[in-house]
Amino acid sequence: MRLSSCLRVAAVVAGLLSVGAALLAMREASLLWAVVTLAALAGHAFTATAMPRVKWGVAAGAGLFALVAVANLHRYREQVAEVGEPARGQAGAGAYLLESWQYGIDRQRLTAGGLALGVLLLGAAVSALPARGGRRGVVTTVLAVAVLVWCVASVALTPGEPPLPDLFAAVWPALLAVLVTAGVLALSGRRGDRRGLLPAGMVLLSLVAVRVCADLAAAWASWWPLVRPAEGAFLQPGIMMSVGAAPGGALEVSSAVETAVALGGVGLAVAGALRAHRETAGR
Fold this sequence. Notes:
By secondary structure, the protein is an all-alpha fold. It contains 9 helices and 2 strands. Helix content is 76%, strand content 2%. Strand 1 and strand 2 (239-241) form a beta hairpin. Helix 3 (52-83) packs antiparallel against helix 4 (90-127). The longest helix has 38 residues, at 90-127.
């Protein structure tokens, strides 16, 4: 068995372990196996037989996703370590809350930026594939438009009363990720493989991008009243809680399903791009 095939099998096994760990609420193990999955996919693409632009684009995209997973794993370990820190005073607790919230929002923006850049690298590989005929391109274009509308609506309907211009300005990295993913989704229908693996993978990655955008919008809408006292109610001196509705705009799915969708999207996109190249190269 070639190295590329071995890495592909390793990616599948590690992906199943990551989903299983998420199902059992083993967050650190799930993230660790996700890193292994994405690294194996990057290695699979790098060692596959394909033209350099396709091979390097797919491998770089998967590798960037692996780096994002490493960053999330590092942040999770930091959060676990912070749980054991001594309790702070009332004023210190308020400042710590705001600092943690801001750090979480910055981390989500970084994740969204990594997703956008990773998909952009995949898009560079997809654009190198020859165009095909058929109706699949029309279907993926319609789906891409639906994804954009869904994302904008989810941000605009975020619970609470944050100013919409400020909200859209705050979530711009996630909006960029959705825009890039939707663009590659539209392109994948015309340049994908015959089995539809590439379009299927981009559909799943589009769901991930919308999820990230909705989560970031909900997090920022919850954080916004805390730094604007006039918009909330002080329950204790120095600590404020919003009286608005609880964040409900984000998609609520189990951690296992989220993990399966994210890893499955990357895996299908990688496999589909490489298969599409093999199909066209064998003509």
